[in-house]
């Protein structure tokens, strides 16, 4: 192999899910260990891997998470190596150990199909934002991959008594045990040269983590949710 290209070759498999660089996910596929992944996220695969868009299990659980494109989840099954990406976004791999995480629907890239999961609308935000925000809660023991528009920061809400405030367009994920409420900071009409993102935030309190991306671009959220 050309020496310049050799540095980008796949590394030996060490886990079910792992990063290949910052912006690509490598999944070790094995028969009987199916995967749910964002529709259209497959960029390459080795071996024998089959795909089923919008499978019945997804339609049953995520019946309300529908846009003109349909529910944006596909089922992947087979043996081999599967590579996933989302328009060059950073990929964050999490190994849940009898734990759970609540993920912004637009930041969920893939997760083990055996994990328990459900889709719901974040309450108390629509009156501030003028739009809904969907989250997917994934729990159990297994692997989850998230995307972030840039390297994220993880804020530990349990370090102090103050609430943690996050722009909804920058929110990636949070611990389901946290209390969430909407907060308006100042009138949207006072903003000049920006969108209305800073006019409202999501306030988190309690014990847990919040994952925030260094981007407030809501284009992807609007594209998926219509």
Structure description:
With 226 residues, the chain is mainly beta. Helix content is 9%, strand content 46%.
Total number of β-strand segments? 15
Distance between the termini: 45 Å
Percentage of residues assigned to helices: under 10%
What percentage of amino acids are in beta strands? over 45%
Average pLDDT taken over every residue: 82
- In DSSP terms (H or I, runs of 4 or more residues), the helix count works out at 4
Order of helices and strands: HEEEEHEEEEHEEEEEEEH
SS-based class = mainly beta
Biggest sheet architecture = 12 strands, antiparallel
> What's the gyration radius in Å?
18 Å
Can you tag this structure with a few keywords?
3-stranded antiparallel beta sheet; 4 helices; mainly beta; 226 residues
Brief synopsis:
The protein is mainly β and 226 residues long.
Strand and helix layout:
Layout: H1 3-6, E1 17-19, E2 25-29, E3 35-38, E4 42-53, H2 56-61, E5 73-84, E6 90-104, E7 108-112, E8 116-121, H3 126-129, E9 134-148, E10 153-156, E11 164-166, E12 171-174, E13 179-184, E14 200-205, E15 209-212, H4 219-225
Antiparallel strand pairs: 1-2, 2-5, 3-5, 3-7, 4-5, 6-9, 6-12, 7-9, 8-9, 10-15, 11-14, 12-15, 13-14
């Amino acid at each position: 192999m050309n020496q310049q290209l050799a540095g980008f070759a796949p590394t030996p498999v060490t886990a079910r899910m792992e990063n290949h660089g910052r912006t690509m996910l490598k999944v070790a596929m094995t028969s009987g260990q199916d995967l749910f992944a964002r529709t259209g996220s497959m960029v390459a695969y080795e071996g024998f891997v089959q795909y089923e868009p919008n499978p019945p299990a997804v339609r049953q659980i995520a019946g309300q998470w529908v846009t003109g494109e349909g529910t944006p989840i596909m089922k992947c099954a087979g043996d081999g190596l599967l590579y996933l990406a989302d328009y060059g976004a950073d990929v964050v791999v999490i190994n849940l150990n009898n734990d759970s995480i609540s993920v912004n629907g637009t930041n969920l890239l893939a997760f083990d199909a055996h994990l328990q999961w459900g889709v719901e609308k974040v309450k108390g935000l629509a009156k501030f934002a003028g739009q809904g925000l969907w989250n997917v809660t994934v729990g159990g023991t297994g692997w989850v991959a998230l995307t972030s528009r840039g390297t994220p920061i993880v804020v530990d809400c349990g370090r102090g008594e103050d609430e943690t405030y996050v722009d909804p367009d920058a929110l990636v994920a949070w611990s389901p045990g946290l209390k969430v409420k909407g907060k308006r900071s100042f009138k949207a009409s006072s903003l000049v040269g920006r969108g209305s993102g800073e006019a409202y935030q999501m306030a988190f309190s309690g014990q847990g983590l919040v994952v925030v991306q260094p981007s407030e671009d809501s284009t992807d959220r609007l594209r998926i949710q219509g």
